[in-house]
């Protein structure tokens, strides 16, 4: 287990020290949110209504941007081969890597979301709902993305194929994330119903993601 | 004859070579019968003649999902049993399934224009079928991106199985989210809710479409086997080339 712990710490250290990955993601998120009023118009009432959807889309795109690097750097320097041959099960190893990736790229987005909600004129309840759904939903995005990253890691143009493979699978997460946020503000249903389904989707991706990704890596290495 | 007997591609080629003409003829016959029944089916009291779009729309919707199920079973064959033909079955099914999904979407929107007043709404069933179409395109893109067929087969198999989680969501979307698309009316616990004069042509057309799918699928698998033989012949030729 200490090997997995070391891997976890290593990935977090690399993410913090090199490249400023987390900040780039937040910056991109901020840019997406800034572009929306230019495209839609500065109508604050309208922005309030579609604010949760904008924040979710921004977070989805920002987490997609970082996925490319989840396994690619390790593939380039050969440490992915070491992980594949190591003592720890590959499923756990990629799971740990995805967890570290979530902590360093997706969690900053969740923390930045309430601040960006101010730009979109969201009130306290809506802001809290968006932050809660993002906190619960982004692990699903990361772990679904893990599958795509593992499938495309050995491909030359993998970065281009990754969103094509991943976005259809991420649609349910987006639907229920936005549905729960909207339900907290206006919706006919209670916040709990879609939020519970969102939790279920995340738990399912936590199970399916590492197994599918490990299988994809083994298939790709041969 | 067990499934494993077909593992030999040569045997598969000779067997399907004998079966295919009969299958194609049967497909044509059932289609002819289906069109004849369709022409004789009465117009709906509300929808008029446009209800006949259903005879194309519903079977292709069934086959859109059936295609992914075929691919999922083939994916299991690739990953679990390493059946040599499973790869080719999965690869051959993807474009056919994508085509039926597209037919379903197009006929659906042509039917939706007079009935609902719009070509497209973001309703649960429509959206999930559209997502299915995108998933088909993703799998086809993955097949085309990886050169080595066996590696491409495994990668596509994993993606197919992960995507298979979406199929029950599509099937039950009309029952879970009660939006514009009508709920299931043929396959349900209390029996079909359609009058026999319309149900019979629908079922015959469904059989015809399924036969068409099987015919196209077997033919595409044969093409895939031949294509791989040519590929390995090229490889051998390149290796044997003098003056390297």
Automatic annotation (TrEMBL), chain A:
Keywords: Cell inner membrane, Cell membrane, Cytochrome c-type biogenesis, Membrane, Transmembrane, Transmembrane helix, Transport. Its main location: membrane. It comes from Pseudorhodoplanes sinuspersici. Belongs to the CcmB/CycW/HelB family. The keyword Membrane applies. NCBIfam families: ccmB. It is a multi-pass membrane protein. This is Heme exporter protein B. GO terms for cellular component: plasma membrane.
Automatic annotation (TrEMBL), chain B:
The chain crosses the membrane at residues 20-41, 61-81, 93-112, 124-143, 155-174, 194-221. It is a multi-pass membrane protein. InterPro entries: Cyt_c_assembly, Cyt_c_biogenesis_CcmC, Cyt_c_biogenesis_CcsA/CcmC. Its main location: membrane. Keywords: Cell inner membrane, Cell membrane, Cytochrome c-type biogenesis, Membrane, Transmembrane, Transmembrane helix, Transport. GO terms for cellular component: plasma membrane. It is found in: Cell inner membrane; Membrane. GO terms for molecular function: heme binding; heme transmembrane transporter activity. Pfam families: Cytochrom_C_asm. GO terms for biological process: cytochrome complex assembly. Required for the export of heme to the periplasm for the biogenesis of c-type cytochromes. Belongs to the CcmC/CycZ/HelC family. This is Heme exporter protein C. It comes from Pseudorhodoplanes sinuspersici.
């Amino acid at each position: 287990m200490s090997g997995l712990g070391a891997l976890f710490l290593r990935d977090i250290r690399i993410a913090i020290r090199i490249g400023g990955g987390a900040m780039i993601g937040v910056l991109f998120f901020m840019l997406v949110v800034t572009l929306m009023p230019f495209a839609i118009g500065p109508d604050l009432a309208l922005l309030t209504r579609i604010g949760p959807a904008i924040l979710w889309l921004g977070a989805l795109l920002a987490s997609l941007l970082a996925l490319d690097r989840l396994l690619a750097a390790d593939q380039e320097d050969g440490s992915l081969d070491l992980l594949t041959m190591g003592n720890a099960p590959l499923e756990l190893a990629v799971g740990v890597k995805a967890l570290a990736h979530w902590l360093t790229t997706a969690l900053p987005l969740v923390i930045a979301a309430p601040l960006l909600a101010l730009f979109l004129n969201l009130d306290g309840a809506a802001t809290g709902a968006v932050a809660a759904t993002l906190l619960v939903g982004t692990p699903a995005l990361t772990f679904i993305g893990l599958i795509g990253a593992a499938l495309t890691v050995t491909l030359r143009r993998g970065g281009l194929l990754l969103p094509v493979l991943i976005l259809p699978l991420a649609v349910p997460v987006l639907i229920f994330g936005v549905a729960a946020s909207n339900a907290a503000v206006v919706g006919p249903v209670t916040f709990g119903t879609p939020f519970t389904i969102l939790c279920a989707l995340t738990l399912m991706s936590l199970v399916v993601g590492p197994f599918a990704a490990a299988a994809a890596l083994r298939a790709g290495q041969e | 004859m067990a499934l494993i007997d077909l593992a030999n591609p040569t045997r598969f080629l000779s067997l399907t070579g004998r079966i295919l003409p009969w299958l194609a003829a049967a497909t044509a016959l059932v289609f002819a019968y289906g069109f004849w029944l369709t022409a004789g089916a009465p117009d709906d009291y509300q929808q008029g003649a446009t209800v006949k779009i259903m005879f194309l729309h519903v079977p292709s919707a069934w086959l859109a999902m059936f295609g992914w199920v075929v691919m999922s079973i083939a994916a299991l064959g690739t990953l679990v049993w390493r059946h040599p033909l499973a790869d080719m079955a999965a690869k051959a099914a993807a474009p056919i399934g994508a085509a039926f999904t597209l037919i379903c979407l197009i006929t659906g929107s042509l039917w939706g224009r007079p009935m609902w007043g719009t070509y497209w709404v973001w309703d649960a069933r429509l959206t999930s079928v559209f997502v299915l179409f995108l998933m088909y395109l993703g799998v086809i893109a993955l097949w085309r991106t990886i050169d080595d067929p066996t590696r491409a087969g495994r990668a596509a198999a994993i993606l197919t199985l992960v995507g298979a989680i979406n199929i029950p969501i599509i099937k039950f979307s009309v029952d879970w989210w009660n939006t514009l698309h009508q709920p299931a009316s043929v396959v349900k616990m209390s029996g079909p809710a359609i009058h026999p004069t319309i149900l019979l042509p629908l079922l015959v057309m469904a059989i015809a479409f399924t036969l068409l799918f099987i015919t196209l699928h077997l033919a595409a698998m044969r093409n895939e086997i031949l294509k791989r033989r040519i590929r390995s012949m090229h490889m051998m030729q390149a290796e044997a080339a003098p003056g390297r």
